[in-house]
Write a structure and sequence with these properties.
Layout: H1 2-27, E1 48-54, H2 62-77, E2 85-88, H3 129-136, E3 158-164, E4 167-168, E5 171-173, E6 178-180, H4 181-193, E7 199-205, E8 223-227, E9 236-238, E10 250-251, H5 252-263, H6 272-282, E11 289-292, H7 302-305, E12 326-327, H8 331-342, H9 346-377, H10 381-389, H11 399-412, H12 426-434, H13 439-450, H14 453-457, H15 465-475, H16 494-514, H17 527-534, H18 538-548
Parallel strand pairs: 1-2, 1-3, 3-7, 7-8
Antiparallel strand pairs: 4-5, 5-6, 8-11, 9-10, 9-12
Helix pairs in contact: 2-5, 5-6, 8-9, 9-10, 9-13, 11-12, 11-13
Pfam family, one: Peptidase_C13
Family: Belongs to the peptidase C13 family.
Active site: 166, 207
């Protein structure tokens, strides 16, 4: 009798508990305020992981970090646990001396502060392609700096990646380096082979972002990608002509997809394909594209952005402000012109006008260098015009050549971070590779055009392009003269220098053995080998690299 009475008293409480258990397993929901592993979404039953990346730095690029902060709140508001969200951003904008709102970022005019509450895992010089790939693939041993967090996904988990920054044909930029189409797609294929995810969705905001996936992303590796633009057009910044005295606050594609997710209280009510079509219609300055496994587009947005019902719209309030759109690569000049228009100081106007003239002069110089490169490599005028005027017809197919050439161009000619206008010409480099011109030949011409004779003379001016490339890629994180503190310190890489010296010595031995039967006398040893013999000492090699860079 007593046990029956006890059961009747406890039955309602038991029903509530069972109801919560059913809701958790049925909808994979969780308490977003809890940090206990057992409370995380899909623990043992498939989780949602997210990697959010702003790949730029500098005041002009305000919008990228604002985009990523906004996306963090979108996911958090829809129930993704913060322990499942990993963020990468340089974090130099909220505290920038030109920021009229210290410690705050805005993704829309007079909207909410999106910086507040964002946990940043990788900042400053730790925002690198190597870290991005290591985090994505769950390789804790390969991460350098930051807090060491990586995506610890399994074959049952889903991954959402959002990246916002500059881009070009076959590459997306990071603060001092870039990630090429080869690197990204190799990583995705390897992740699939190792069963690192069930499905992966990638939202990419960058100029010519379609080129990272067009005719490259395989349809059978469970990856679905949406890009802000096709493979040959710019993406657009938005809220550029704002009255907050700030740069462009966002990017059109990014603000559109996040606003759509903000507006939907329940993301289980919308599919990825529906979101794609909404964003494609609203993004009228570029062609939003999608690639990969289009079957994934039939799934609900909630499967990648969270199942919780959002209580309210986070960022924008009705009515929505005018977007005031600017093409991304013209933003530096347009910002200066806006400042001129708003100023009554004639002296300031003159200084700003001079800056604009200097930018145009630098661009004119770059235009000439690209044309000279093509003329040197291709003699036929018709082919020259085709290389200079058209984008690759079938995307980037010669991925190793593309990877080598764009890295060399970035290292020894024009740092893409310091010269974002140079990104517009990456399609020319891609065309040279698609035309089956050898990568070492292209790099050799780049050396001739971009490295001063006196610097090249320090290596006798004759070292083979491939070996010079090895030196440059190993030791140069940036061209000298800007942000010296970011230079790689050669003294901290003595072991790697010795390894490189060993490789050079091995190559010399192999070359000597291969040419033994050619009856070539010792007096005809190539200048390249003589130069390498001169610099065989480790310390001398290090000093030579410093001189070259």
């Amino acid at each position: 009798m007593q046990s029956s009475l006890l059961f009747l008293l406890l039955a309602p409480l038991l029903g509530v508990v069972l109801g919560h258990i059913h809701d958790f397993h049925g909808r994979k929901r969780f308490d977003s305020s809890s940090s206990e592993e057992d409370d995380l979404p899909g623990a043992g039953d498939g989780a949602i992981w997210a990697l959010l990346v702003a790949g730029s730095n500098g005041w002009y690029n305000y919008r990228h970090q604002a985009d990523v902060c906004h996306s963090y709140h979108v996911l958090l508001n829809h129930g993704i646990h913060p322990d499942r969200i990993i963020t990468m951003m340089f974090d130099d904008i909220a505290t920038h001396p030109e920021n009229r709102f210290p410690g705050q970022l805005f993704n829309a005019p007079n909207g909410g502060d999106v910086y507040k509450g964002v946990k940043i895992d990788y900042k400053g010089n730790n925002v690198t392609p190597a870290n991005f790939l290591a985090i994505l693939q769950g390789q804790k041993d390969k991460v350098k700096g930051g807090n060491g967090r990586v995506i610890e996904s399994t074959k049952n988990d889903k991954i959402f990646v959002y990246f916002s920054d500059h881009g070009a044909v076959g590459l997306i930029a990071f603060p001092t380096q870039m990630l090429t189409v080869k690197q990204l797609n190799d990583a995705l294929k390897e992740m699939h082979a190792k069963q690192k995810y069930k499905e992966l969705t990638f939202y990419l905001e960058a100029c010519e972002s379609g080129s990272m996936f067009e005719n490259i992303l395989k349809k059978d590796i469970n990856v679905y990608a949406i890009t802000a633009a096709n493979s040959h057009e710019s993406s657009w910044g938005c809220f550029c002509d704002n009255d907050m005295e700030l740069p462009c606050l966002g990017d059109q594609f990014s603000v559109n997809w996040m606003t759509d997710s903000d507006n939907k209280s329940d993301l289980d009510a919308e599919t990825l394909d529906e979101q794609f079509n909404i964003v494609k219609r609203l993004t009228d300055k570029s062609h939003v594209m999608h690639y990969g496994d289009l079957q994934i587009a039939r799934e609900k947005v909630a499967e990648f952005q969270g199942h919780e019902k959002a209580p309210r719209r986070l960022i924008l309030e009705q009515p929505e402000p005018e977007m005031s759109l600017w093409p991304v690569r013209e933003i530096p000049i347009l910002m200066l012109r806006r400042e001129i228009d708003r100023s009554n100081d004639e002296g300031l106007k003159a200084r700003l006008s001079k800056k604009i003239a200097q930018i145009h002069q630098k661009r004119h110089y770059l235009d000439g260098r690209i044309e000279a490169l093509v003329r040197e490599l291709i003699r036929d005028p018709n082919r020259q015009r085709q290389i200079l005027k058209t984008h690759p017809r079938h995307g980037v197919t010669q991925m190793q050549c593309h990877h080598d050439v764009v890295n060399a161009f970035h290292r020894i000619c024009f740092d893409f971070n310091e010269n974002p206008y140079a990104l517009k010409y990456v399609y020319v480099l891609a065309n040279l590779c698609e035309d089956r011109i050898d990568a070492d030949r292209v790099i050799e011409v780049l050396m001739d055009q971009c490295v001063d004779n006196d610097k090249r003379h320090s290596l006798d001016g004759r070292i083979e392009a491939a070996l010079v490339r090895e030196l440059i890629w190993k030791w140069c994180s940036r061209r000298p003269g800007v942000h010296q503190e970011k230079q790689i310190e050669i003294d901290s890489h003595r072991d790697e220098i010795r390894e490189f010296e060993h490789r050079v010595t091995t190559k010399q031995s192999e070359d000597t053995a291969n040419s033994a039967g050619s009856r070539r006398s010792a007096s005809t040893t190539s200048p390249s080998r003589r130069s390498l013999q001169i610099y065989s000492n480790v310390d001398m090699l290090a000093m030579t690299v410093e001189e070259l860079l």
